[in-house]
Amino acid sequence: MLRARADYNNANTFTMCTIDGTTNIWVGLKVVGGSYVTAEVNHPGAMDGMLRARSSTVGSWEQFDILCASSNGPDLCDIRSRGTGHYVTTEVNYPGGDDGMLRARSSTVGSWEQFYAEGM
């Protein structure tokens, strides 16, 4: 499971593998030194849409749109899963060990669905 819980100085990094789609540019997110990030599509229960670094290839569950707009504020972007059709959200104050879990489950963008993009 991917979680947003590192502080700024120890932030996790991903490699964005830009791929030219038929009408839009989308990316695969690869954990540095590891696997591609996947959104668990149609996973039962509360883990539906959970992001995990577990794939060795980029298929439909590993495709994401990175949407950066000046309306979001400086360096803020939204991430939308092409597999679920939803925005990635950070589960803030989620119970137990799942606090900070990243899931592609939101149909709207709020503060929990915005991420800093550096070096773009």
Automatic annotation (TrEMBL):
Lineage top rank: taxon: Bacteria
InterPro entries: Actin-crosslinking
Record's protein name: Uncharacterized protein
Organism: Streptosporangium roseum (strain ATCC 12428 / DSM 43021 / JCM 3005 / KCTC 9067 / NCIMB 10171 / NRRL 2505 / NI 9100)
